[in-house]
């Protein structure tokens, strides 16, 4: 399968580690409790694997020269780099949360500036403090980043309710993201099914696609996407279970008055969103392209973690898409989204 030289291969799902963020939260109240929750959700067997797995990948997560060499080895020309979701720290109080996001934004920008033709970055906002989201989105954009990464929800703090993506308190954030053209990368961290998923790495294999489906459903059914049709939101992990099971959502919209806060059938909004290709199954990838449209799927690898794709182009080729769709997913869609010449 030939690849037009004018279209770069672009991976929109790649991560980095920022030691300065972890230094900022070390010893702060709330960190131990958050780490305990993460341990309960994942279980001891997963934690025993995670430490060595991440440790072996630290050079790829920190060193730009190692990152570029790995990209070259897999045929990736450009990465959209986002902080590891472990840096969210949604437990943090406002002042610390603001500092975490500023450090993440500045650190990601500095990392990408070492190879500006090949690396573009996303920053963070404190989803648990919606009142800070607009200012920190602007801070990320001021660093030259393309937008921000968010989780599927933020837990409630100090008696306040959980922040879902449908929360009215996020209205100004969605409006600002639409106004500026900022990218919003939806990447869950942690699943609220908690200890039910604490064996066999279900916290990730089942938890991540579940969280994606729930978060996207909040955006769709609440009418956020009706109010902000120009929002540029990319869902990691192919949007989880939602795109391939969207028929049930359409049925609920038609059958139940309590599921009619959005203007149209839920499946129509898939063509208003973007999805990465990281679904680990060529049949599912073909269905994602069918459901969302070939112009809405972007190459994603979850570089460099073990639940990602070591050969994202090979995974894309295995889906045996029509040649035009293959090149759109390989890089054409992302090039247009990033306004790359």
Automatic annotation (TrEMBL):
Top-level division of the source organism's lineage: Bacteria
InterPro entries documented for this protein: ACMSD, Amidohydro-rel, Metal_Hydrolase
Entry keyword set: Hydrolase, Lyase
Signal peptide (residue range): none
Residue stretches making up the Amidohydrolase-related domain: 10-340
One Gene Ontology term of the molecular function aspect: hydrolase activity
PANTHER family: 2-AMINO-3-CARBOXYLMUCONATE-6-SEMIALDEHYDE DECARBOXYLASE, ISO-OROTATE DECARBOXYLASE (EUROFUNG)
Keyword Hydrolase tagged: yes
UniProt cross-references to Gene3D superfamilies, sorted A to Z: Metal-dependent hydrolases (3.20.20.140)
GO biological process, one term: secondary metabolic process
Protein name: Amidohydrolase
High-level lineage: Bacteria, Bacillati, Actinomycetota, Actinomycetes, Kitasatosporales
Transmembrane segments: none
